[in-house]
Amino acid sequence: MNPYWDEDEGDDGADSMVRPYTITRGRTAPRRDDFTLITLLTTVQEPVDAYGAPVRPGRLQPEHRMILDRCRTPAAVAEVAADLDLPVSVTKILLGDLVEQGLLTARAPIAVARAAGGADRGLLAAVREGLRRL
Amino acid sequence: MTTTQAGAAAVKILIAGGFGVGKTTMVGAVSEVAPLRTEEYLTTASVGVDDLAGVDQKDTTTVALDFGRITVSPELVVYLFGTPGQERFWFMWNDLVNGALGGIVIADTRRLETSFASIDFFESRGIPFVVAINCFHGVNTRSAAEIRAALDLDPHVPMLVGDVRERPFGRDALLALVDHLMALPVAG
Predict the structure, then answer these.
(1) In this structure, is residue A33 part of a structural domain?
(2) A-chain residue closest to B80, CA distance
(3) How far is A24 from chain B (nearest CA, A)?
(4) Could you give the CA distance from residue A15 to residue A20 in angstroms, rounded to a whole number?
(5) Crossing angle of helices A88-100 and A77-84, rounded to 10°
(6) Residue B65 bridge partners (DSSP)
(7) What is residue B70's three-state secondary structure?
(8) What number of other Cβ atoms are within 10 A of residue A108's Cβ?
(9) A132 touches chain B (CB under 8 A)
(10) Chain B closest-CA separation from residue A127 CA (Å)
(11) Is A115 within 8 Å of B188 when comparing Cβ atoms?
């Protein structure tokens, strides 16, 4: 055994890079790129297609099922990633699969960009009300 | 804890500041859940390396961030993201930065300089923020005016002094941010 080779073992990143993208079957980018850290996801209770027929899930991996369980109450992308202990980018790929199949709905964050006029007053008032109860 | 409905939407607030100033502590003090941790891979082009190859050298870095949540109503959730300690990385994390309602910059009176970069960043990106001065055990050796001068804060930027471990201080800092947002002229 060559001791010099051993120095490469445990190099951070090497192991952790490979496994997550195995879960996505090698895909490194989601088909849709509009997920943000706080996009809220909700599992569709009885998914039906455009014609009202029940959706039969395609190939689901254990991680997909975990997501569907988790999102019975709405959860943000970041929360799902934390619960699955997967990087955000990997989680987004799995979420994309489920949204595409109609098993999960995604709700974009509220737009608050200053350039677009900033957050609306009603929103800020609601946030303030909520914070006061802390 | 309020239950969120399927129609709920979210906003986020960034909790920034230098390494070890108490970002995760503040998130934990106000969050309804224990701070969660998530990771992201960021691809960063390294500059000045291997120019002759004619190909950009790319490095992948794993950045971790801690976050919490406050369900303010069945329709509205506020997520609090403590920015990662490695400043040069979170500055490039567009998904983390884009669409933030605003920020809280935590600063430690014993080493204010560690929070300069966060202040500069919010200013340059036009993200409204307030400054929360963290005084562990209530020990504060400097006056508010001295701290403002040292941080080179614009007069309109609110500044609070307190202990980030205490929920009322975190709440007050968040309320100060919301009041600051309401006081800003409507852009556009």
Answers:
(1) yes
(2) A38
(3) 15
(4) 9
(5) 110
(6) B38
(7) strand
(8) 14
(9) yes
(10) 6
(11) yes
Q: What is the pLDDT of residues A20-64, one digit of tens each?
A: 778 788 787 777 778 999 999 999 988 888 888 888 887 789 999
Cα–Cα distance for residue pair B147/A94, rounded to 1 Å: 47
Please tell me the total count of domains within chain A. Answer: 1
pLDDT at B28 over 90: yes
Residue at A5 is within a domain:
no
- How close, in Å, is residue A5 to chain B by CA atoms? 22
* Helices A88-100 and A62-70, packing angle to 10 deg: 80
CATH number, position A86: 3.90.930
In a domain, A8, yes or no: no
Residue A53: beta bridge partners?
Answer: none
Write the DSSP assignment of B90-111 as a string of letters. HTT-HHHHTTEEEEEEEEEGGG
Do the beta carbons of residue B126 and residue B25 sit within 8 Å?
no
Name the pTM for this structure: 0.86
Give per-residue pLDDT as tens, A106-122: 999 988 866 666 778 89
| Paired tokens of B103 | 């920020």
Q: Domain range for residue A88?
A: 15-132
Interface test with A, best of B59, B95, B169, B171 (most A CBs within 10 A): B95
A54 touches chain B (CB under 8 A): no
Please tell me whether residue B114 adopts helix, strand or coil conformation.
helix
- If one compares B60 and B75, the residue with the highest pLDDT of the two is B75
Angle, vertex CA B82, rays to CA B106 and CA B5, nearest 5: 125
Using CB atoms, pick whichever of B40, B72, B186 lies closest to residue A130.
Answer: B72
Residue A10 belongs to some domain of the structure: no
The answer to whether residues A41 and A96 touch, using CB atoms and an 8 Å cutoff, is no
Can you list the domains of chain B with their CATH numbers? Answer: 9-37+67-183 (3.40.50.300)
